[in-house]
Protein: Serine phosphatase RsbU (Regulator of sigma subunit)
Amino acid sequence: MQPPSEPDGERAGIGRLAATIERLRRQVQEAQQAADGRALIELARGILIERLRCGPTQAARQLAALAEEAGVSPLELAADLINQAARDRLAEVAEDVLADAVPAETRSPAVRLRAAEHGMVHAPDTQAVAVSLLEHALGPLGAAAVAVWVAGPDASLRLAGYAGFSAEEARRWHYVPPGVTTAARRALTERRTVWFDSLRQAGPPTIGHRQLSGGRVTVPAGTGGRVLGVLEIGWPDDLEPQSPQIRRQVEALAELVAHTIEAPSGQQGAAAGDGYAELVDLADGLHDPALVLTPHLDGEGHLVDFRVSHANGPFLDPAGRPRGEVVGALLLETYPLLAGDGGIYEKVQHVYATGEPFRADRMALTTLVDQVPLSVVMRLSLSRQGGGVLVVWAILDETSRLARLLQHAQRLGRIGGFEEDAVLGEITWNQQLFEFYGLERSAAPIPIDRLAEHAHPDDVPEVGRFLRTLLHHRRSASVSFRLRRSDGISRHIRVVAEPVFDDHATLLAIRGVYQDISAQHWTEVALAATQDQLVQSEQQAAERNRLALQLQHAIMPPSRGPMDAFDLQIAVRYRPAEKEHLVGGDWYDAIVLPSKQILLSVGDVAGHGIEAATGMVVLRNALRGLAVTGAGPAQLMTWLNLVAHQMIDNFTATAICALYNPGTRVLRWARAGHLPPILIRDDRAAELPMIGGILLGAVSEADFEEGRIELRREDTLLMYTDGLIERTDRTLEDSQRQLLVSASRHAATLDARLDHLLAHNRSDTDDDTCLIGIGLR
Structure:
């Protein structure tokens, strides 16, 4: 038998090593469980020693005998004895758990919960608490991970312990700033247990939500009405609705976690001692009324009220009671109406529980004065400082509200007020005036009679007239000038002032206001410049439109008399746009070529104005020159497309080019995106068959098809631009059908037919219109 190859040997060695690690892991786990079990049994023996007044050996025998008699293991009996002696939350939960409320396991719920408690209480830190919690209590419930969050004084969250999550994920989520919405944050701010059936469907971001996207629950962990942290539990799969027993187990474990959470650094002893003294010192240093509230707990450690532990010097009771009557009393006993839904007491509870501060500029406070409700409006600030709540309020009476309103109005209107006492010589400025002059608040105000020293030299005469009217003639006056500050900044200021007299016409004071009108001034300057530019632009546009109209009329007069060429009679009509700025690029042409063929064309350049008019001239003249070569209509369109694409930027047009041979009476034609000609034969109008042809200038190379028709005597051919029929209230197809009906009407002459078409097919787009009529005699 040959020895295994080297790779096979390595795999075999790795397998043996893995098996050894797994065996050691099981032994460690069994040893830990045995140690937990021995601790519970020893605790139960202690209970029996105390109750039976016996020694340790007799207590151990009694425990074994009772377990055998009850048909349970000594460990399960020990857990039951501990529950009966403790009568705590874990005992209540263990008694309430049904046999089918948890998955089948080797340990009973009572043993499991007490083992978890023992592991958490004796854990060296919060990290060990999380590990013990997952191993003893949450793993049997199917949970795969657990996180313990500690709430900071500013409602932030710090990851203090975790199990089931990777170290890298824990580093990413080691701190959650205030205001960031996470699963744990909801439990903290809402102060209730929050269940998520599936994170992948509607869960907020949280630790491990990408790898462990099943069910999740977050439970506030707190004591005495204060949320110290949040217990977060994750499942690998979606959660079915949990029974009330399981929900109570989770909440009981969170309460146990609250007793084991490490206090955040800097928070130890904050509720009393030096921390409380610092909070009192903080309240005494405020100018507004302030109270220091500390939690008042019942015998079971539940928050039932807050005690007014301190009131600072400026504190004024809304009911008029002295400070000594308020300090030391319970908050709800002193102000019972605070307990209303959504009232101040609820805000105090929330701030104390979560650490989130609360601010309100206007909030109603109702107190009882001789059993009569008295409501006042106040400005309120609540913040948690260590183990207490600092309440700062300022009652807003009518005078203070009006003063604040005036202050905001002055700030928004950039208005600064002043008063100069003529008797005492004192000058009073508000904050805005110091900002206008660029001075510190501690600087001396500048008298009104020195205003000219701070004005622009060009504005000094106007300021001088203002001062003479105000100070010498003692009449109200106003002036606008440029205020020059020491930092070189100039502001446009308007000053309005008036003298104040007593009943004996003695001058008492000069009062007035400064208003910063810089923004208004520069707006007016910009508006004037814009108006000048607009007038100039309008003049340029009018001149361009006039030139375009002159160019258009010079090449294509609005009407031309009939032209006879061989056996053809040709008549044209051109109707320009009514508005000059809509002068377009429509054109027509009818000439006899050296080859004795007749060139007929119409076209429409996109756009309006001088660009469209000049583009029309280029295409019309180019087509004339190209037609001398003797090429057919399709070839002429190909060349004309190159002219439009290469010689003129951003230029497109539609066109029809036709060549009539008098000898054969054959008309050949091509189109470039234009409407086809109309043939009127025997008083029946119909469009010529549509042939292919793209817009001129759209692409560099294009092929155009060529159509042919042999004209008969009394036939009439119409070529036109879309300005004849285009309307906004109907489709182009409807307008074309209407044109065919109108063209079928009998007319005595070709001119009469064209005039009829112009009169009865008027568009509403105010566009140019070209119309050519060709009649074969």
Observations:
- The domain at 554-776 is CATH 3.60.40.10 (Phosphatase 2c; domain 1).
